[in-house]
Amino acid sequence: MSAAREGGHRRRLDVAGQDFFPAYVVWELTLRCDHACTHCGSRAGVARDDELTTEEAVRVAGELADLGAREVVLIGGEAYLHDGFLDVVRALRARGVTPAMTTGGRGITAELARAMAEAGVSHVSVSIDGLEPTHDRMRNLRGSFAAGMAALEHLRAAGIKIASNINLNRLNHRDLEPLYEVLRARGVTSWQVQLTSPLGRAADRVELIFQPWDLLDVVPRIAALKARARADGVLLMPGNNLGYFGPEEATLRSLRAGDRDHWRGCQAGKFVMGIESDGAVKGCPSLQTSHYVGGNVRQRPLAELWRAESPLGFNRARTVQDLWGFCRTCDFADPCLGGCSFTAHAILGRPGNNPYCHYRARTLAKQGLRERLVPAAAAPGTPFDNGTFDLVVEPLDAADPTAARAPDELVQITRRPLRQAR
To answer: Strand, helix or coil at 225?
Structure first.
């Protein structure tokens, strides 16, 4: 993450010129959720065993402030289903840390939105994954889209800056442009577009996942949409697993028109931290729990975990020598360093070689080739888990066997009563 917020506005971190510190923290307060989304990387729904109490979470909020955290994004599951949600917000705000939130929005009533504003929540991103039929299918719940739209209205009315985000895949990508118009009309100030990675429940539904050559269509469309959004006063930014180094790179990564920003490598464990609801700490919230947890806040102070040599800091000494496959010999190997770590790991079982790369897809296409992901091993069924894929290189115009089964065949919509938000 090369940009942080201060006072509600983004500013660029000098990722090459300052010591590592957790500027941007994503904190899963609870795994309890009022959705059971088909693409959820954490397989949220039921709380983890032995989640942090309110007292423990407030203490961790202070430790984050001591480490210099600038922004803490509270997530779940659903963060508002943790008994101490607002207490944690107040603790962060009291120490000068910007509290934010990412949510599905189902339980955000007008009353809760006002309480969040009073406690000090700065901005909230509501996850909207397509127009109503597509969103409800991905979120596995009829009425989910309407609830998300209502949450945006309640939050805006309470004076909280509103944003949105989308997980883009083969099921919903045709909704991208019309969805932007819906969100713009709702008054969102920013929109994050990221790719659905085969992580968690999405690893069980591989037909949802883009094939690498799909980026040839998707990335230019996102760049064109960003130019339109900029003219409308909306900041569209790519997630860390979308790019890299194609002709649209500067447009995608820059905060302002005319800037020449670009992807600067995975910042997990350098300027980004993830905290799981039972106190486990890793360098990025989406990294695989089984491989990247560097300790637990119940066992050691957060500052010690951050500074220790551990899986949390795996990324700090990464060089081109750690790359492999196409990424090892790529023209952009040095600045890119293999793109998003959790995405590469979710596909090939370790970081350093990332098929989700626009430059890579374009390079192969010029040779009349493409890469196809073929499932090799299933995910075990735990939060932030993954299976693995084999990569098949084939002619660019080959038939697509993965299109034989439509993604929406794998997504069943259910009705469930709304859990009480606390």
So the answer is: helix
User: DSSP for 325-383?
Assistant: THHHH-TTHHHHTTS-HHHHHHHHSSSS--S--HHHHHHHHHTTEEEEEEEEE---SST
- Least Cα distance to 357 among 240, 273, 203 occurs for 240
The pLDDT value recorded for residue 421 is 40
- The widest CA-to-CA distance across the chain, in whole angstroms, is 59
**Peptide bond between residue 292 and the one before it cis (omega within 30 degrees of 0):** no
Give the C-alpha separation, 35 to 287, whole Å. Answer: 21
The structure tokens listed for 179 are 């969805």
Q: Which run of H or of E encompasses 64?
A: helix 54-66
Q: Are 342 and 199 in contact (CB under 8 A)?
A: yes
d(CA 96, CA 11): 17
Is residue 242 within 8 Å of 195, Cβ to Cβ?
yes
pLDDT of residue 316: 93
Q: What is the pLDDT of residue 413?
A: 53
Residue 227 structure tokens: 């130019």
Place of tokens 């490598």: 265
In this predicted structure, the answer to whether residue 332 has a pLDDT above a threshold of 60 is yes
Burial class of residue 143 in the structure, from the number of CB atoms within 10 Å of its CB (0-12 exposed, 13-18 middle, 19+ buried) = middle
Residue 173, token pair as written in the block: 């990508």
Span 109-115, mean pLDDT? 98
Q: Cβ atoms within 10 A of the Cβ of 299, count?
A: 9
* pLDDT band (50, 70, 90) for residue 405: low
Residue 186: count other Cβ atoms within 10 Å of its Cβ.
16
Q: How sure is the predictor about 16, in pLDDT bands with cuts at 50, 70 and 90? A: low
pLDDT of 179 reads: 98
